[in-house]
Amino acid sequence: MAKINVLIFPAGEINSVELHDALSSCVNVKVFGASSVERHGKYIFQNYISNVPMINSPVFFDKFNEILTQNEIDIIFPTHDTVADFFSTNQDKIYAKIVVADQKTAAICRDKEKTYQLFKNYNFCPKIHSELIDYPVFIKPKQGQGSVGARLINKPDELPADLNDYVICEYLPGIEYTVDCLTDLDGKLLFISPRSRQRMMAGVTVAGQNEKLTKNIEYIANIINDKLTFKGLWWFQIKKDSNDNWKLLEISTRCAGTMCLTRAKGINLPLLSVYILMGYQNITIINNPYNIKMDRTLISRYEIDYTYKIAYVDFDDTVTLNDGVNLKVMWFLYQCQNLGIKVNLITKHSHDIYITLNKLSISVNLFNEIIKISEDEHKADYINPEQAIFIDNSYNERIDVSLKLGIPVFDVDNIDVLMNWRV
Fold first, then answer.
1. Who has greater pLDDT, 75 or 132?
2. 310-418 — its CATH code?
3. pLDDT confidence of 119, banded at 50, 70, 90?
4. Please, are residues 80 and 144 in contact by the beta-carbon 8 Å criterion?
5. CB-based contact 82:111 (threshold 8 Å)
6. Which long-range contacts (C-beta less than 8 Å, at least 24 apart) are formed by 111-118?
7. Which of 6, 288, 395, 411 has the highest Cβ tally under 10 A?
Protein backbone atom coordinates (compact mmCIF):
# COMPACT_ATOMS: atom_id res chain seq x y z
CA MET A 1 0.00 0.00 0.00
CA ALA A 2 1.43 3.37 -1.06
CA LYS A 3 1.85 5.78 1.84
CA ILE A 4 0.51 9.31 1.95
CA ASN A 5 3.46 11.66 2.41
CA VAL A 6 2.64 14.51 4.79
CA LEU A 7 4.83 17.55 5.49
CA ILE A 8 4.55 19.59 8.71
CA PHE A 9 5.83 23.15 8.24
CA PRO A 10 7.20 24.74 10.29
CA ALA A 11 8.02 21.77 12.51
CA GLY A 12 9.16 23.26 15.78
CA GLU A 13 6.23 24.36 17.93
CA ILE A 14 3.79 22.47 20.12
CA ASN A 15 1.13 22.03 17.44
CA SER A 16 3.72 20.46 15.13
CA VAL A 17 4.42 17.96 17.91
CA GLU A 18 0.70 17.16 18.06
CA LEU A 19 0.60 16.65 14.29
CA HIS A 20 3.65 14.40 14.53
CA ASP A 21 2.11 12.34 17.33
CA ALA A 22 -1.22 12.10 15.51
CA LEU A 23 0.26 10.91 12.21
CA SER A 24 3.61 9.21 12.82
CA SER A 25 2.13 5.88 13.97
CA CYS A 26 -0.39 5.64 11.10
CA VAL A 27 0.64 2.77 8.83
CA ASN A 28 -0.49 4.53 5.64
CA VAL A 29 1.17 7.89 6.38
CA LYS A 30 4.82 8.96 6.20
CA VAL A 31 5.50 12.16 8.11
CA PHE A 32 8.11 14.79 7.30
CA GLY A 33 9.02 17.88 9.30
CA ALA A 34 10.59 21.01 7.84
CA SER A 35 11.65 24.31 9.39
CA SER A 36 13.32 27.58 8.52
CA VAL A 37 14.39 28.19 12.13
CA GLU A 38 15.93 25.32 14.10
CA ARG A 39 13.78 24.39 17.08
CA HIS A 40 12.35 21.14 18.44
CA GLY A 41 11.52 19.32 15.22
CA LYS A 42 14.83 17.52 14.77
CA TYR A 43 14.27 15.69 18.06
CA ILE A 44 11.05 13.98 16.98
CA PHE A 45 10.90 13.82 13.18
CA GLN A 46 12.79 10.92 11.67
CA ASN A 47 12.40 12.64 8.30
CA TYR A 48 13.50 16.16 9.09
CA ILE A 49 14.46 18.95 6.68
CA SER A 50 16.22 22.05 7.99
CA ASN A 51 17.28 25.38 6.50
CA VAL A 52 14.08 25.92 4.52
CA PRO A 53 13.99 29.52 3.24
CA MET A 54 11.67 31.90 5.07
CA ILE A 55 8.32 32.41 3.36
CA ASN A 56 9.28 36.01 2.48
CA SER A 57 12.43 34.85 0.69
CA PRO A 58 12.48 35.35 -3.12
CA VAL A 59 13.64 31.74 -3.50
CA PHE A 60 11.03 30.23 -1.16
CA PHE A 61 8.74 28.72 -3.79
CA ASP A 62 11.58 27.21 -5.82
CA LYS A 63 13.27 25.63 -2.79
CA PHE A 64 10.03 24.58 -1.09
CA ASN A 65 8.62 22.96 -4.21
CA GLU A 66 11.93 21.19 -4.70
CA ILE A 67 11.48 19.67 -1.23
CA LEU A 68 7.91 18.68 -2.09
CA THR A 69 8.95 17.07 -5.37
CA GLN A 70 11.97 15.22 -3.98
CA ASN A 71 9.94 13.73 -1.14
CA GLU A 72 6.75 13.21 -3.15
CA ILE A 73 4.73 15.19 -0.60
CA ASP A 74 0.96 14.84 -0.93
CA ILE A 75 -0.31 16.98 1.96
CA ILE A 76 1.07 20.00 3.85
CA PHE A 77 0.03 21.14 7.33
CA PRO A 78 1.02 24.77 8.04
CA THR A 79 1.43 25.22 11.80
CA HIS A 80 1.62 29.00 12.15
CA ASP A 81 -1.20 31.43 11.39
CA THR A 82 1.04 33.62 9.23
CA VAL A 83 2.21 30.62 7.22
CA ALA A 84 -1.37 29.38 6.87
CA ASP A 85 -2.43 32.80 5.59
CA PHE A 86 0.52 32.88 3.16
CA PHE A 87 -0.20 29.37 1.88
CA SER A 88 -3.88 30.14 1.38
CA THR A 89 -2.95 33.13 -0.78
CA ASN A 90 -0.44 31.09 -2.81
CA GLN A 91 -2.03 27.65 -3.06
CA ASP A 92 -1.64 27.63 -6.85
CA LYS A 93 2.15 28.07 -6.51
CA ILE A 94 2.68 25.09 -4.19
CA TYR A 95 3.00 21.53 -5.52
CA ALA A 96 0.88 19.74 -2.90
CA LYS A 97 -2.51 19.86 -1.22
CA ILE A 98 -2.62 22.12 1.84
CA VAL A 99 -4.75 21.73 4.96
CA VAL A 100 -5.80 25.36 4.97
CA ALA A 101 -8.91 27.39 4.26
CA ASP A 102 -9.41 29.50 1.16
CA GLN A 103 -7.76 32.91 0.89
CA LYS A 104 -10.76 34.90 2.14
CA THR A 105 -11.31 32.66 5.16
CA ALA A 106 -7.63 32.59 6.12
CA ALA A 107 -7.42 36.38 5.94
CA ILE A 108 -10.49 36.78 8.15
CA CYS A 109 -9.21 34.25 10.69
CA ARG A 110 -5.79 35.92 10.75
CA ASP A 111 -7.22 39.36 11.61
CA LYS A 112 -9.50 39.63 14.65
CA GLU A 113 -10.87 42.96 13.47
CA LYS A 114 -12.07 41.28 10.26
CA THR A 115 -13.40 38.33 12.28
CA TYR A 116 -15.52 40.54 14.51
CA GLN A 117 -16.69 42.62 11.56
CA LEU A 118 -17.99 39.48 9.83
CA PHE A 119 -19.95 38.32 12.88
CA LYS A 120 -20.96 41.72 14.32
CA ASN A 121 -24.68 41.05 13.85
CA TYR A 122 -24.63 37.82 15.87
CA ASN A 123 -25.15 37.74 19.61
CA PHE A 124 -21.96 35.73 20.15
CA CYS A 125 -19.75 38.54 18.84
CA PRO A 126 -18.15 40.49 21.70
CA LYS A 127 -18.61 44.23 22.03
CA ILE A 128 -15.85 46.07 20.20
CA HIS A 129 -14.91 49.60 21.28
CA SER A 130 -13.71 52.21 18.81
CA GLU A 131 -12.66 54.37 21.75
CA LEU A 132 -12.10 53.83 25.43
CA ILE A 133 -15.04 54.91 27.55
CA ASP A 134 -14.98 52.57 30.50
CA TYR A 135 -12.67 50.02 32.13
CA PRO A 136 -11.83 47.18 32.35
CA VAL A 137 -11.37 46.27 28.68
CA PHE A 138 -9.40 43.58 26.95
CA ILE A 139 -6.99 44.39 24.14
CA LYS A 140 -5.50 41.91 21.68
CA PRO A 141 -3.36 42.30 18.55
CA LYS A 142 -5.39 42.32 15.35
CA GLN A 143 -2.96 39.73 14.05
CA GLY A 144 -1.73 37.52 16.87
CA GLN A 145 -1.02 33.89 17.64
CA GLY A 146 -2.50 32.33 20.76
CA SER A 147 -2.74 34.85 23.59
CA VAL A 148 0.55 36.59 22.79
CA GLY A 149 0.16 40.33 23.31
CA ALA A 150 -3.40 40.07 24.65
CA ARG A 151 -4.04 41.56 28.08
CA LEU A 152 -6.55 43.04 30.47
CA ILE A 153 -6.50 46.83 30.85
CA ASN A 154 -7.84 48.21 34.13
CA LYS A 155 -6.72 51.84 33.86
CA PRO A 156 -5.38 54.26 31.22
CA ASP A 157 -1.70 54.06 32.15
CA GLU A 158 -1.71 50.33 31.30
CA LEU A 159 -2.46 51.02 27.63
CA PRO A 160 0.26 50.66 24.98
CA ALA A 161 1.39 53.89 23.33
CA ASP A 162 -0.11 52.92 19.96
CA LEU A 163 -3.49 51.18 19.79
CA ASN A 164 -3.70 51.04 15.99
CA ASP A 165 -2.65 47.39 15.85
CA TYR A 166 -5.05 46.29 18.60
CA VAL A 167 -8.70 45.37 18.89
CA ILE A 168 -10.40 46.72 22.02
CA CYS A 169 -12.97 44.24 23.33
CA GLU A 170 -15.32 44.00 26.24
CA TYR A 171 -13.85 42.18 29.23
CA LEU A 172 -15.08 38.59 29.42
CA PRO A 173 -14.70 37.20 32.96
CA GLY A 174 -16.17 33.73 32.41
CA ILE A 175 -14.89 30.28 31.49
CA GLU A 176 -13.09 29.70 28.20
CA TYR A 177 -13.49 26.84 25.73
CA THR A 178 -11.69 25.83 22.57
CA VAL A 179 -13.95 24.06 20.08
CA ASP A 180 -12.28 21.65 17.65
CA CYS A 181 -14.08 21.19 14.33
CA LEU A 182 -13.82 19.20 11.11
CA THR A 183 -15.27 20.21 7.74
CA ASP A 184 -15.24 18.21 4.51
CA LEU A 185 -14.55 19.54 1.00
CA ASP A 186 -18.27 20.10 0.43
CA GLY A 187 -18.46 22.44 3.42
CA LYS A 188 -20.29 19.96 5.63
CA LEU A 189 -19.43 20.29 9.32
CA LEU A 190 -18.65 16.71 10.34
CA PHE A 191 -17.58 17.12 13.95
CA ILE A 192 -17.64 19.61 16.85
CA SER A 193 -15.77 18.98 20.12
CA PRO A 194 -15.58 21.57 22.94
CA ARG A 195 -12.80 21.43 25.51
CA SER A 196 -12.10 23.68 28.48
CA ARG A 197 -8.90 25.61 29.04
CA GLN A 198 -8.31 25.26 32.77
CA ARG A 199 -4.65 26.26 33.01
CA MET A 200 -2.49 28.09 30.51
CA MET A 201 1.24 28.49 29.95
CA ALA A 202 2.56 30.87 27.27
CA GLY A 203 -0.77 30.79 25.47
CA VAL A 204 -0.93 26.99 25.41
CA THR A 205 -3.49 24.92 27.31
CA VAL A 206 -1.64 22.71 29.79
CA ALA A 207 -4.72 21.53 31.68
CA GLY A 208 -8.18 20.95 30.29
CA GLN A 209 -10.94 18.46 29.68
CA ASN A 210 -13.59 17.64 27.11
CA GLU A 211 -16.90 19.40 27.62
CA LYS A 212 -20.51 18.79 26.60
CA LEU A 213 -21.56 20.03 23.18
CA THR A 214 -24.50 22.33 23.91
CA LYS A 215 -26.98 23.63 21.33
CA ASN A 216 -25.56 27.12 21.79
CA ILE A 217 -22.00 26.02 20.98
CA GLU A 218 -23.28 23.93 18.07
CA TYR A 219 -25.14 26.99 16.77
CA ILE A 220 -21.97 29.13 16.88
CA ALA A 221 -19.96 26.41 15.12
CA ASN A 222 -22.53 26.08 12.35
CA ILE A 223 -22.75 29.85 11.78
CA ILE A 224 -18.96 30.09 11.51
CA ASN A 225 -18.85 27.10 9.17
CA ASP A 226 -21.60 28.61 6.98
CA LYS A 227 -19.87 31.99 6.74
CA LEU A 228 -16.36 30.69 6.04
CA THR A 229 -14.81 27.96 3.89
CA PHE A 230 -12.72 25.36 5.69
CA LYS A 231 -10.90 22.23 4.52
CA GLY A 232 -10.33 19.66 7.25
CA LEU A 233 -9.58 20.64 10.84
CA TRP A 234 -10.11 24.08 12.34
CA TRP A 235 -11.04 25.53 15.71
CA PHE A 236 -12.49 28.52 17.46
CA GLN A 237 -12.35 29.89 21.00
CA ILE A 238 -15.22 31.23 23.07
CA LYS A 239 -15.49 32.80 26.50
CA LYS A 240 -18.44 33.67 28.71
CA ASP A 241 -19.36 37.25 29.49
CA SER A 242 -20.68 38.60 32.79
CA ASN A 243 -24.20 37.43 31.81
CA ASP A 244 -23.08 33.84 31.18
CA ASN A 245 -23.33 34.18 27.39
CA TRP A 246 -20.73 32.75 25.02
CA LYS A 247 -18.65 35.27 23.06
CA LEU A 248 -16.27 34.56 20.19
CA LEU A 249 -12.56 35.12 20.80
CA GLU A 250 -10.90 33.88 17.63
CA ILE A 251 -10.98 31.34 14.79
CA SER A 252 -8.02 29.47 13.33
CA THR A 253 -7.50 27.23 10.32
CA ARG A 254 -4.41 25.46 11.67
CA CYS A 255 -3.97 22.54 14.04
CA ALA A 256 -4.18 23.44 17.74
CA GLY A 257 -1.54 22.12 20.09
CA THR A 258 -4.18 20.72 22.43
CA MET A 259 -6.13 18.82 19.78
CA CYS A 260 -4.44 15.90 21.53
CA LEU A 261 -7.33 16.07 24.01
CA THR A 262 -9.86 15.48 21.24
CA ARG A 263 -7.59 12.77 19.80
CA ALA A 264 -7.58 11.12 23.22
CA LYS A 265 -11.33 10.63 22.77
CA GLY A 266 -10.59 8.68 19.60
CA ILE A 267 -11.02 11.46 17.03
CA ASN A 268 -7.77 11.96 15.12
CA LEU A 269 -8.52 15.27 13.39
CA PRO A 270 -5.15 15.53 11.59
CA LEU A 271 -5.54 12.05 10.10
CA LEU A 272 -9.17 12.70 9.16
CA SER A 273 -8.05 15.94 7.49
CA VAL A 274 -5.51 14.00 5.43
CA TYR A 275 -8.24 11.61 4.31
CA ILE A 276 -10.56 14.49 3.43
CA LEU A 277 -7.95 16.22 1.25
CA MET A 278 -7.05 12.92 -0.40
CA GLY A 279 -10.68 12.59 -1.45
CA TYR A 280 -11.68 9.66 0.75
CA GLN A 281 -15.44 9.19 0.99
CA ASN A 282 -17.74 8.04 3.81
CA ILE A 283 -15.39 9.06 6.63
CA THR A 284 -16.54 7.57 9.92
CA ILE A 285 -15.87 9.31 13.23
CA ILE A 286 -15.72 7.29 16.45
CA ASN A 287 -16.22 9.36 19.60
CA ASN A 288 -15.43 7.12 22.55
CA PRO A 289 -18.06 7.19 25.36
CA TYR A 290 -15.90 8.56 28.17
CA ASN A 291 -14.87 11.93 29.54
CA ILE A 292 -11.21 12.80 29.73
CA LYS A 293 -8.94 15.25 31.53
CA MET A 294 -5.52 16.31 30.33
CA ASP A 295 -2.62 17.82 32.25
CA ARG A 296 0.88 18.30 30.93
CA THR A 297 4.14 20.05 31.54
CA LEU A 298 7.34 20.53 29.59
CA ILE A 299 9.10 17.44 28.27
CA SER A 300 12.85 17.31 27.73
CA ARG A 301 14.47 15.62 24.74
CA TYR A 302 18.22 15.32 24.32
CA GLU A 303 20.97 14.88 21.77
CA ILE A 304 24.48 13.75 22.75
CA ASP A 305 27.60 13.79 20.60
CA TYR A 306 28.66 10.25 21.49
CA THR A 307 28.01 7.30 19.18
CA TYR A 308 27.67 3.92 20.83
CA LYS A 309 27.21 0.49 19.30
CA ILE A 310 26.84 -1.54 22.48
CA ALA A 311 25.14 -0.89 25.82
CA TYR A 312 26.08 -2.76 28.99
CA VAL A 313 23.02 -2.79 31.24
CA ASP A 314 22.62 -3.85 34.88
CA PHE A 315 19.58 -5.92 35.90
CA ASP A 316 18.52 -5.49 39.55
CA ASP A 317 16.92 -2.08 40.16
CA THR A 318 17.84 -1.06 36.62
CA VAL A 319 15.84 -3.31 34.32
CA THR A 320 13.64 -4.08 37.33
CA LEU A 321 11.69 -1.60 39.43
CA ASN A 322 10.04 -2.64 42.69
CA ASP A 323 8.34 -5.95 41.84
CA GLY A 324 8.11 -5.37 38.10
CA VAL A 325 10.06 -3.92 35.21
CA ASN A 326 11.24 -0.37 34.60
CA LEU A 327 9.20 0.69 31.59
CA LYS A 328 11.68 3.36 30.49
CA VAL A 329 14.53 0.88 30.48
CA MET A 330 12.42 -1.62 28.54
CA TRP A 331 11.70 1.13 26.04
CA PHE A 332 15.45 1.67 25.73
CA LEU A 333 16.12 -2.05 25.24
CA TYR A 334 13.62 -2.26 22.39
CA GLN A 335 14.97 0.99 20.96
CA CYS A 336 18.42 -0.61 20.82
CA GLN A 337 16.95 -3.59 19.01
CA ASN A 338 15.28 -1.31 16.46
CA LEU A 339 18.50 0.65 15.88
CA GLY A 340 20.78 -2.38 15.70
CA ILE A 341 22.62 -1.53 18.93
CA LYS A 342 23.80 -4.55 20.93
CA VAL A 343 22.80 -4.90 24.58
CA ASN A 344 24.83 -6.95 27.02
CA LEU A 345 23.07 -7.67 30.31
CA ILE A 346 25.67 -7.64 33.08
CA THR A 347 24.42 -8.67 36.50
CA LYS A 348 25.19 -9.95 39.99
CA HIS A 349 21.64 -11.25 40.34
CA SER A 350 21.44 -13.66 43.29
CA HIS A 351 18.99 -16.06 41.59
CA ASP A 352 18.90 -17.82 38.24
CA ILE A 353 18.76 -14.85 35.87
CA TYR A 354 17.01 -16.84 33.15
CA ILE A 355 14.21 -17.90 35.49
CA THR A 356 13.78 -14.30 36.69
CA LEU A 357 13.70 -12.97 33.14
CA ASN A 358 11.05 -15.54 32.26
CA LYS A 359 8.94 -14.59 35.31
CA LEU A 360 9.04 -10.96 34.21
CA SER A 361 8.21 -11.90 30.59
CA ILE A 362 11.49 -10.40 29.36
CA SER A 363 12.83 -12.19 26.30
CA VAL A 364 16.47 -13.28 26.41
CA ASN A 365 16.56 -12.36 22.71
CA LEU A 366 16.76 -8.70 23.72
CA PHE A 367 20.33 -9.32 24.82
CA ASN A 368 23.40 -9.97 22.73
CA GLU A 369 24.99 -11.57 25.79
CA ILE A 370 24.06 -12.20 29.42
CA ILE A 371 27.07 -11.81 31.72
CA LYS A 372 26.57 -13.23 35.22
CA ILE A 373 29.33 -12.35 37.69
CA SER A 374 29.86 -12.83 41.41
CA GLU A 375 29.25 -10.19 44.06
CA ASP A 376 32.95 -9.48 44.62
CA GLU A 377 33.81 -9.01 40.94
CA HIS A 378 33.99 -5.68 39.10
CA LYS A 379 31.75 -5.09 36.12
CA ALA A 380 34.42 -2.89 34.56
CA ASP A 381 36.54 -6.01 34.04
CA TYR A 382 33.87 -7.49 31.71
CA ILE A 383 33.24 -4.44 29.55
CA ASN A 384 34.85 -3.74 26.19
CA PRO A 385 34.98 0.07 26.16
CA GLU A 386 35.01 0.52 22.39
CA GLN A 387 31.92 2.59 21.46
CA ALA A 388 30.17 1.42 24.62
CA ILE A 389 27.98 2.87 27.35
CA PHE A 390 27.14 1.54 30.81
CA ILE A 391 23.79 1.78 32.63
CA ASP A 392 23.54 0.87 36.31
CA ASN A 393 21.69 2.23 39.33
CA SER A 394 24.75 1.59 41.54
CA TYR A 395 26.95 4.66 41.99
CA ASN A 396 29.94 2.52 42.97
CA GLU A 397 29.69 0.48 39.77
CA ARG A 398 29.32 3.61 37.64
CA ILE A 399 32.27 5.41 39.20
CA ASP A 400 34.43 2.28 38.83
CA VAL A 401 33.57 1.92 35.13
CA SER A 402 33.99 5.65 34.51
CA LEU A 403 37.43 5.82 36.12
CA LYS A 404 38.77 2.59 34.61
CA LEU A 405 37.29 2.77 31.11
CA GLY A 406 36.37 6.41 30.51
CA ILE A 407 33.06 5.61 28.81
CA PRO A 408 29.75 7.40 29.48
CA VAL A 409 27.84 5.95 32.43
CA PHE A 410 24.16 6.47 33.21
CA ASP A 411 21.96 6.08 36.26
CA VAL A 412 18.37 5.01 35.64
CA ASP A 413 17.11 8.56 36.22
CA ASN A 414 19.33 9.76 33.36
CA ILE A 415 18.24 7.24 30.74
CA ASP A 416 16.04 9.90 29.12
CA VAL A 417 19.25 11.27 27.58
CA LEU A 418 19.44 8.10 25.47
CA MET A 419 15.84 8.07 24.25
CA ASN A 420 15.31 8.42 20.51
CA TRP A 421 11.90 9.98 19.83
CA ARG A 422 12.29 10.20 16.07
CA VAL A 423 9.56 8.35 14.18
1. 75
2. 3.40.50.1000
3. very high
4. no
5. no
6. 111/142, 111/143, 112/140, 112/141, 112/142, 112/143, 112/144, 112/167, 112/250, 113/142, 113/167, 115/248, 115/250, 115/251, 116/167, 116/169, 116/248, 118/227
7. 6
CATH architecture assignment, domain 1-97: 3-Layer(aba) Sandwich (3.40)
| Domain edges within the chain | 1-97, 99-285, 310-418
User: How confident is residue 168, by pLDDT bands cut at 50, 70 and 90?
Assistant: confident
Q: What percent of the chain has pLDDT over 70?
A: 91
Give the pLDDT of residue 162: 59
Q: Across residues 266-295, what is the average pLDDT?
A: 95
Q: pLDDT tens digit string along 85-115?
A: 999 999 999 999 999 999 999 999 998 889 9
- Could you please state the CATH topology (level 3) that the domain comprising 99-285 is classified under: D-amino Acid Aminotransferase; Chain A, domain 1 (3.30.470)
Residue 130 has what pLDDT?
66
Mean pLDDT to the nearest integer, 311-319:
98
Do 1-97 and 310-418 share a fold?
Answer: yes
For the full predicted model, state whether its pTM sits above 0.70.
yes
